[in-house]
Write a structure and sequence with these properties.
37% of the residues lie in helices and 13% in strands. The protein is of the alpha/beta class. The protein folds into two domains: 2-162 and 353-372, 3-Layer(aba) Sandwich (Rossmann fold); 165-350, Glycogen Phosphorylase B (Rossmann fold), CATH 3.40.50.2000. The strands form three sheets. A six-stranded parallel sheet has the order 10-9-8-11-12-13, sandwiched between helices. A four-stranded parallel sheet has the order 4-5-6-7. The protein has a three-stranded parallel sheet with strand order 1-2-3, with no helix packed on it. Helix 5 links the parallel strand 5 (109-113) and strand 6 (134-137). Helix 1 (12-26) crosses helix 15 and helix 8 (202-211) packs parallel to helix 9 (234-244).
């Protein structure tokens, strides 16, 4: 298994991978973890993995290409390691090393599509993504996005992310949580949880807050992660809050370890993404905690908010529509106290972790069986390529 940084501070894909690997290990599979940077989830992996090894990188940094390539080659040796049955990467960004490792051991390679694809693939990733025998997409929309980039639909299996609903129960009362973070006890609280990034559309949430009554407050839980962007995003958000005059009602909390507690203290959780959201894990997390989620109708999110919950979708970037959806569910704990139960049942029925593990396990088993039978089919067709090389990894 290839992971970038096993850390709960990064986002949903790291937590999803941990759940999947733990589940596979509980079914008797031996998991060997490769990771690029340490994180707080390593201790949990230690409880069920057969082996853990750190590597320097999964791709070549073109700003220091010779040194980077030499380190990658050294990491590729993997001396003394028994050949695995399958190589499994958690994102397309790790595909270069994944394909090389598959060649090193002469074994099949599977890549999980947890991120939306780039408009075009630069050289390293185009070559790396030509290697997987099969791909696992976390939504039907994600599959279609990759098909549009040149991948074969028949080699992409859709496996929605899932949660163990029993584990998503707030451990503290709403009053205690609000006191912990300095949030008004009587306010109507709206929560965003995720990384601070322009793709998440937090400007829409801030603008919607300015349209809502004074008793509505927003708590933004998450931090900015360096990704090569030239300008920091947090100062831009702070300026937006000042311009909209909602500084007293918009609270930036940073990373929140027990996010279920904050969800439980909220009237609603919001995911206002403006760039394709492959799945929308925070939507499922919130509903598992018995709290409705209002989300932009983008990417794979409409596959999560179905049935009665489809009414909680809004047009990306439309602050007035978001404000309208939040007003529509105001006071739901009094008006419709069974909504919490229905939210939890929706997740348990459609997005359980057992269903996710079943799906991933089936893809891995099928891939290994095909390989052993002599089938050497790849998931890539004519991948859309970039005219420019990757600047760095």
């Amino acid at each position: 298994m290839l992971e970038n940084e096993p850390s709960s501070r990064r986002g949903g894909q790291e937590l999803s991978l941990l759940d999947v690997c733990r589940g596979l290990a509980s079914r008797g599979h031996a998991i060997e973890l490769l990771y690029r940077a340490g994180g707080d989830l390593l201790g949990e992996y230690a409880g069920f993995t057969a082996r853990q090894d750190r590597v320097s990188a999964y791709a070549i940094d073109r700003s220091r290409a010779l040194v980077s390539a030499a380190r990658l080659a050294g990491d590729l040796v993997q001396a003394g390691r028994t050949a695995p049955d399958v190589i499994y990467a958690n994102q397309y960004l790790d595909s270069l090393f994944g394909r090389l490792l598959a060649w090193r051991f002469q074994r099949p390679f599977v890549c999980h599509l947890r991120l939306p694809p780039p408009d075009v693939f630069c050289g390293q990733y185009r070559w790396g993504m030509a290697g997987p025998s099969r791909l696992i997409a976390i939504s039907r929309q994600t599959r279609e996005d990759y098909v549009a980039r040149g991948f074969r639909r028949d080699r992409i299996d859709v496996v929605h992310n899932g949660l163990d609903v029993a584990q998503w129960v707030p451990a503290s009362s709403a009053g205690d949580v609000r006191a912990r973070f300095g949030l008004p006890r009587e306010a109507r609280l709206v929560v965003f949880a995720g990384r601070l990034h322009p793709a998440k559309g937090l400007e829409t949430l801030i603008d919607a807050l300015a349209l809502l009554p004074e008793d509505v407050h927003a708590a933004i839980a998450g931090r900015e992660i360096a990704d090569g962007r030239r300008d920091d995003y947090a100062p831009h958000l702070a300026a937006r809050v000042a311009v909209r005059g909602v500084g007293a009602r918009c609270h930036f909390l940073g990373h929140v370890p027990r996010i279920a507690d904050l969800y439980g203290a909220a009237e609603a959780v919001v995911l206002p993404s403006v760039v394709s959201e492959a799945f929308g894990r925070s939507v499922v997390e919130a509903m598992a905690c018995g709290v409705p989620a209002v989300a932009a109708k983008i990417g794979g999110v409409p596959e999560v908010l179905t049935g009665e919950f489809a009414s909680l979708l809004f047009t990306p970037g439309d602050a007035a529509a978001l404000a309208s959806r939040l007003e529509a569910i105001a006071g739901w704990r009094v008006r419709d106290p069974q909504l919490a139960r229905r939210c939890r049942e929706h997740v348990a029925r459609h997005f359980s972790i057992a269903q996710t593990i079943d799906g991933v396990e089936e893809v891995l088993r099928r891939t290994v069986a095909e390989w052993r039978s002599g089938t050497r089919t790849h998931a890539a067709g004519e991948i859309v390529r970039s005219p420019k090389p990757c600047a760095s990894a």
